[in-house]
Every structure is written in structure tokens, then in C-alpha cells.
Design goal:
Elements (H helix, E strand, L loop, with lengths): L1 H42 L17 E5 L6 E4 L17 E7 L4 H17 L3 E8 L10 H9 L4 E2 H4 L1 E2 L16 E6 L3 H5 L7 E5 L5 E4 L9 H9 L5
Parallel strand pairs: 3-4, 4-7
Antiparallel strand pairs: 1-2, 1-7, 3-8, 8-9
Length: about 240
């Protein structure tokens, strides 16, 4: 009987030792994993969400269109190249303008956007975010946005007093392979998330999405072309 008890005791000791070994191995693997996470957290610069230079702006999602097309799903973040190598010409930059089809300043600025597209269409993607300001005379619609983009017959632009076909500038359809998106933001979701108070407000984003220009602090949308020239010279197209 004593012999059987000794054998049973030895088996239990063997099992306990094997279990302790497996537990030690598991804890070692977990420790290495967490040390790796801590190294990544310490060695990687955090990205700040915001609209100031060097920050990552909030995402813009919803429905968009290009000139004379149907609406389709749009996701700004999906277009960024997070592994961009810093070479200014390897990936396209993003010109973003928040506008309102009833805004007189946006009416005028439509020509500036056409000029920027003509000069720098080879190195940029243009995204117009069409919002509706919560002020009298600014009642927009998808039909109005389409007519403003396509420059077609529609009475209602410019606080409802002008035909969209008469706005300055060309059809916003892109040149030299540039994609010229209009994103519908009539509820003002993106406008609010970007903490913007009025239109037009313009941004230039690097290919990885970080802000390089914000018209609210960099002299207005009129200075966007100057910024693009500083970066690309006359080689945009």
C-alpha cells in the first residue's frame, strides 16, 4: 500500500512540475508581448486628431460624386497612404474645401478651385464638402449641389438668387487625371466635427492625411494656391 502511495505521489509531483513549466513559458510569452507593445507605444509618435498643421483631421464619410455621375459611398481615410515616404510627388495630396452652394464667397471661390485644379491637377485630389450653413437664405439640396458642381441649369444657388449654371469657373470635373469629388454634408456633420464656423474653409493634406495648410489660420482660401506653388513650384501639371 505504501508503495502505491509513493508512486501516486511521484506522479502528482511530475504533473505539478510540468504544469509549473507550462505556466512559466506562458508568462514569458505574455511578458515579451507586452514589452513589445510598450516599445511600440514609446517609440511611435502619437497622432493628434485635429485640423491644425501636423494633426490628423476627423474622417469624412458619406456619399460623394464626381461631375455628371451618380452618388457613391465615400471614406476620406481610405484614400490616405499611411506609409507615405515623404517624397512630394510619389502620392497625391488632398485639397479640401468646405463650401455652401448658397454662400456668396463660395460662389466666387468656385473659380479659384477651377484654377487650382488646372494648375495642380497632376498632384492633388480635390474634395469639396458641401454643407448647409444654419443661417437664413441657405437652404440647399442634392439637386443644387449637383448643379453647382456640374455648372448646369438650376435656380437656387447664391442664397437662392442665381442660376447655378452662371457660377464662375469651370465644371468641377478634374483635369490631368485629378479626381474632383463633391461630398454631401447637408446635416453639417463633417463641418461640426472639423469645428468650422463658416465657408469657404480650405485645407491641404499630405498624402498620409496630416494637415499642411488651414485657411482659417493661414490667410484664407486665396493663399491655398500660394502654398501649393511653394511645395510643387510650377510642376503641378
Amino acid at each position: 500500500m505504501m508503495k502505491d502511495d509513493n508512486a501516486s505521489l511521484r506522479r502528482r509531483l511530475f504533473i505539478d512540475q510540468a504544469g509549473d513549466g507550462r505556466l512559466s513559458s506562458f508568462l514569458a510569452v505574455v511578458s515579451v508581448f507586452f514589452i513589445g507593445l510598450m516599445f511600440i507605444a514609446v517609440s511611435t509618435d502619437p497622432v493628434v486628431i485635429g485640423v491644425n498643421k501636423g494633426e490628423m483631421p476627423p474622417n469624412i464619410t458619406g456619399e460623394a460624386r464626381i461631375a455628371h455621375s451618380d452618388w457613391f459611398a465615400f471614406d476620406l481615410y481610405a484614400k490616405f497612404n499611411e506609409s507615405w515616404n515623404g517624397n512630394i510627388t510619389t502620392d497625391r495630396w488632398f485639397v479640401i474645401e468646405f463650401m455652401d452652394t448658397d454662400c456668396p464667397y463660395c460662389w466666387r471661390d468656385a473659380e479659384t478651385m477651377s484654377q487650382i485644379d488646372a494648375q495642380f491637377g497632376g498632384v492633388i485630389i480635390t474634395i469639396v464638402v458641401a454643407s448647409e450653413l444654419n443661417i437664413p437664405g441657405h437652404e440647399s439640396s442634392r439637386k443644387e449641389i449637383e448643379a453647382f458642381q456640374d455648372k448646369t441649369d438650376f435656380e437656387g444657388c447664391y442664397t437662392g438668387n442665381r442660376n447655378c449654371a452662371d457660377r464662375p469657373g469651370d465644371i468641377h470635373q478634374g483635369s490631368d487625371g485629378n479626381l474632383f469629388y463633391y461630398v454631401e454634408d447637408l446635416p453639417g456633420k463633417a463641418l461640426s466635427e472639423w469645428n468650422l464656423q463658416g465657408t469657404p474653409t480650405c485645407f491641404l493634406l499630405k498624402p498620409n492625411g496630416l494637415v499642411a495648410f488651414n485657411s482659417a489660420v493661414d490667410g484664407g482660401c486665396d493663399q491655398l494656391g500660394v502654398k501649393l506653388y511653394e511645395i510643387f513650384g510650377s510642376g503641378g501639371n
